[in-house]
Each structure stands twice: as structure tokens, then as C-alpha cells.
Known about the structure:
Layout (H helix, E strand, L loop, with lengths): L1 H27 L3 E7 L7 E2 L1 H10 L5 H12 L7 E2 L2 H4 L8 H23 L8 E6 L8 H9 L6 E5 L6 H13 L6 E7 L12 H9 L4 E7 L10 E10 L4 H4 L2 E5 L5 E5 L3 H20 L2 H22 L22 E4 L4 H11 L3 H14 L6 H11 L8 E8 L3 E9 L25 H5 L15
Parallel strand pairs: 4-5, 4-6, 11-12
Antiparallel strand pairs: 1-7, 1-8, 2-3, 6-7, 8-13, 9-10, 12-13
Helix pairs in contact: 3-8, 12-13, 13-14
Amino acid sequence: MAFFILLCVIPLLYLLFSLWKWASAGDDQACYILDYECFKPSDDRIISTEFSGDIIKRNKNLGLNEYKFLLKAIVSSGIGEQTYGPRNVLLGREDIPTLPDAISEMEEFFHDSIEKLLARSGVSPQDIDILVVNVSMLSLAPSLCSRIINHYKMREDIKAFNLTGMGCSASLISIDVVRNIFKSRKNVRALVITSESLSPNWYSGNDRSMILANCLFRSGGCAILLTNNNSLSKKAMFKLKCLVRTHHGARDESYGCCIQRDDEQGRLGFYLGKDLPKAATRSFVDNLREIAPKILPVRELLRFTLVRAAQSFNFTRSKKGDSGAGGVGAKATIDFRTGVDHFCIHTGGKAVIEGIGSNLGLDEHDLEPARMTLHRFGNTSASSLWYVLAYMEAKRRLKKGDRILMISFGAGFKCNSCVWQVVRDLGGTNVWKDCIDDYPKKNTANPYLEKYGWINNEDPATFVIPQ
């Protein structure tokens, strides 16, 4: 009898142990954001309309047509007068950047944002188990990771990853690196550092496709503290629900539409080609196709499937000449707002924000965080998502249980997206604290046209570069 009971109990215990192990593994795979800190450079790095004009006038390679192109680009960019630039550009040395310029730009951000983040969260540098740094256009030896480890005297067994060349979508790639490490290590903390190096990458030539980058990119950065320790979940701000990465680097037109290269005169710059909108759209659609089933309710997916099937049926009948067909009608679309409460969109430019809004059927309320972030901080590359998120928090939009869809694009060409769930009601002070009451702006027009609009009336035969 005892032997029979033992035979029954052992499989039951094994089953209970397997269930416990499976549940524990699920906890270890959790990914929480404990806190984050966006960088706000000092006021002496602000690029106003007047100073922007001074920078352009310093470039003796420009002619009247280039001036007109820049005027049109800046006026329609959606960028305001309080964005920040690198110090060497503000000092008039954009043509002759040095390695110390690039290093000091990064260290100014590191020392400010990391120190504030760790101090506020009560985490010591020695508590960090994983460090991931992404700065696409600066590669040093020792790496930026090593500089941070040395400055903060982090542990010898820290796992460090230094990512370059990943473009504006790099912060979600860094999060993905952390998420995958979390699957094999328990109760660890990770620090993700995301920024871009503008000091050595300011373009001083006259190629329009490369000048455009100067109009859009601005200085910024963000430090993010993450953990998979389930006991810290109540202290967390966000929990990662899913993350999807789409890479179209195998397509030549996608690979070459957004690339660092020399112009015809040998001047290094960042090329933004005419195929960029098409490449972005393709990667965006493919990315949405994969993430939609992960985040949307079954009823919305079923509704979309039925509507699309009905439209396909009507289209087939109309092709056969059936006069009773009612026509194809409006294109079937998925309503992402059935599974998402907020949309955190990369501030790649006014056209990028409007394009995503149009494709997803978003209204002005949905697009406001991205529009206002572009106006206040510009395109800060991979860190821009976190300024948008900070805007939502500062406006007290983020409530417990809300879901946030992050969408970003990057050179390669790639589209990365993820969904965060808000763990608790949020509304603390952050990088927006000094100006959030001034937003949203009713008028985001750049005053550059008012000051430099006279260029449009100039005669090419008599035009003289302004002094």
C-alpha cells in the first residue's frame, strides 16, 4: 500500500516541481523599468533661430539654392528654438572636430544623467550587473562602456555591451539585449545608456541629401535602469510586454537610403536618400504585421480578418463584372487603439510623425507627445523615444495598467517596436519640469522664415553670401 502511494506521490511532486520551475522561469524573464533619466544640456548649448542662421552662414560651400533649400527644410521641420547642439559647433569648430570634442560631449551626458538616475533610485554603481551603451556614430578604444565602468568603478564581473552603427532605433535593440540576458540570469539589474555623437558628425558640404541631417539632429540622451527581479515589481514604472525587431538590410534600396558616407568633395556626412520614405513604410508594415497579434484583442483581429475577406470577395466579384457588387470600399485597417492606450513615436521629423499617425489612424491627442518633443528637443536619435515617454508622464497621462506602443526607425534599414505596461500611476518631475506648462504649443512654426525669408527674393546673378 505504501509503495502504491509512493508511486502516486512521486509523479505528483514532479508535476508540482515542474509547474513551480515554469512559473519561476516566467518571473526571471520579466523585464521592468525601475527608472529613467533624460539628459537636458545646459542653456549655453541652445541653438536658437538666430544662431542657426549664423552656423549656416559660416558654411562657405553653400550657394543661393542651398540657402533656399535649408530655409524650406528648417521652417517645415517642426523643430523649435530651444534644442541643443554640440559645443564644438557652438564654438564655430564644426569643420575641425577633435576626439576630445566627441569624448567630452558623451561624458557631459554620462556624468549628469547616470548620477541623477542612480541617486534617485538608491542604486549603487556596484549593484549594476549589465551595462549596454548605444552611440551609433562614435567608436572608441577603450569603449564608451569601459569609460563608464572606470568612472563609476563598477564590478569586475559586469557584463558590458557597446553598440555602434544601430541608428535611431538603437535603444530598443539595447532593451532587447537586456531582455535576452534576463532569460538566463535571475534578480539582476541592467543600465542602458542611449545617445548620439554629433560633435564629429556635423556636415559642412553642400549636398542637399546630407545637409538635411544638420536640420533634424540635436543633442540628447537617456539612462534607463531595468531589472528582472520580481520582488522589485511594485517599485517599477513599466513592464515590457513584447518587443519586435524588423530588419530590411538585405534589400539594397533599404540598406542604402540612410547611410554615412563621403560626398563628392570627400566631406563626411549622413546621407538621407529619396528611397527613405518607401523603406520606412515597408519596414513599418512588416513590423506591425508581426506585433499586432501579440498586443491586440482577438475580437479586433477577427473583425479585421472578416472585413478584409469581405472586401476581397467584393473585389473578385467586381472584376468578373458582377453589377451587383458593392465595390471594394475603404481599405481594411486595424484599430491599434483597441490594444494600446498611448503611442510613443520616434521624432524622426514632422513627416515621420504624420506618416505613422496617418497609417495608424491616430488623432492629435495621440500625436501630441511626439510633435511637442520634436519641437522642444528635436530628433535626439535613439534617445528620442524616452523624451516622448517623459512628456506623457509629465502630463500625467500614464495610469496603472495603460499600454504604451513604442515605434522607432533606424539606418540599416530597420523598424523596432515594443509595448510597455504602466505598473503604477505616474506623474513625477522629469526633463520637462521647467517647461511642461507651456505645452502643447498652439503654434509650432519656426520663426526662421520671418528672419531669413528675404533669401527667396534674391537674384542668383547678384546673390552674395551673407556676412
